[in-house]
Each structure stands twice: as structure tokens, then as C-alpha cells.
Amino acid sequence: MQRLNNITSRKLAYTEHRIHALLSARWSPVAFSDEMVEAEKIRTLLEAARWAASSYNEQPWHFIIATKDNPVEFENLLSCLAEGNQEWAKNAPVLMLSIAKLYFERNGAENRHAFHDVGAASAQMTIQATAEGLFIHQMAGFDVDKARKIYDIPDGYAPVAAMALGYLGDSTNLSEKLQQREYAERDRKSLENFVFSGKWNQVSPIL
Fold first, then answer.
1. Which CATH architecture group holds 33-168?
2. What 3 state SS string does 121-171 have?
3. Which residue among 46, 77, 91, 189 is least enclosed by CB atoms within 10 Å?
């Protein structure tokens, strides 16, 4: 593992331009320790999410949390995950589900920015987690309809993503396939692929 002050990471991002160490150290492991996450740290992560920016300050995010010290609740949330995600997420001590409110409280109109804003809150949570020595792995692979049924999620709200939260664990306990995934080289598209000026697909001169 590599360490930056109090930040520990197996896979630092080697960036083309300077970014904050917390951003470089953030990644999504599949090897989690069974060490319980302190309740105070979980509250700290949720507080970080709470202070994310949102359209009209609507704060359309909601989070459902299940911890291993409540096995029934943990198994309920785990059962919503895709089978491939259950294989490793079952080892994390905390599972979460993010939910978006799809309509503005102020006027009842559709909030087309709701998923964006939930993503912003979740991003702040992941960076705060890194600062706390924790890691979050967000998942698209979960059964939306099953989550709706288990948690009685009302109309006007939509499950967005599942999350596993915990401390880094021993990757040797993973299957060979997951070990390869755990240590695969990190990569990102270059800025030229997505930063434009003037018209679509015209690379911005600022680069």
C-alpha cells in the first residue's frame, strides 16, 4: 500500500495534471476488511454528503444504510445487489443505497438534476471516506424493483446506486478474478476526449 500522510491506498492515480491527494487516493476496492466502521465516522460521511450543492438547494438525496451488526438488515440490502457484486460486497461492514427525489418540493415540477445532485452528494461522501481512511465502492449492479419493494420506496423517488463502505481488506481472500480486478492498472480518458470549445468534439485550446 502507498501512504500519503494519513491516506492509505493500494492504487494511487498517476495524473496528467496536479490534483488533491485525496482525489488521487480515492478508488473502488473489492477487498474489504470485516472491521466495523465507527458510527461517528459514518455520521461524518453523511454530513459531508449533506453539504453537497444541489439545484435550488433541494437536497434530493436519501440514503438507506445497513450494517453487519444488524444481520437481517444487512442481508436485505445485500440481496438487492447483482450476484457478481454480492460475491465481494458481503465482506464489507456497511452497505448503502442512494435514493433520488425526482420532483421539486418548491413547485412539484420534475427535477431533471436529481440524479446529478445525488451523485454530487455521493462524491463528497467518497472523498470524506478517503480522508477518514475508508473506501466506498459504488455499484450500478443492483435490482431496482427489489429495492423498491423491500424498502417500500414511494412513487416520485428512484434508487440510484448501491454502495459498499469499509476499510481495505486482504485481497488474497478474493477469487483470482477479483484479485486481478483489485490490482488492475487504473486508467482514465485524456482531457482531450471530453473537454471541448466552440463546437462538439473540438478540443478546447485551454488544454
1. 3-Layer(aba) Sandwich (3.40)
2. HHHHHHHHHHHCCCEEEEECCECHHHHHHHHCCCCCEEEEEEEEEECECCH
3. 189
Enter the C-alpha cell of residue 197.
Answer: 470549445
DSSP collapsed to 3 states, 43-84 = HHHHHHHHCCCCHHHCCCEEEEEEECCCHHHHHHHHCCECHH
pLDDT, one tens digit per residue, over 71-109 is: 999 999 999 999 999 999 999 999 999 999 999 999 999
Grid cell locating 39: 458510527
58 and 101 Cβ atoms separated by less than 8 Å: yes
Instruction: Give the count of beta carbons closer than 10 Å to the beta carbon of residue 141.
Output: 14
Distance CA 155, CA 27 (A): 33
Structural domain boundaries of the chain? Answer: 33-168
What pLDDT, in 10s, does the model give residues 111-128?
999 999 999 999 999 999
**Cα 25 from Cα 135, distance rounded (Å):** 10
Q: Which of 157, 108, 126, 141 is nearest to 29 (CA)?
A: 126
Query: Is the dihedral angle over the CA atoms 135, 139, 144, 149 positive or is it negative?
Result: negative
Report residue 141 as a C-alpha cell. 449492479
For helices 39-50 and 114-131, what crossing angle results, to 10°?
140
pLDDT by residue (tens digit) across 155-186?
A: 999 999 999 999 999 998 889 999 898 888 88
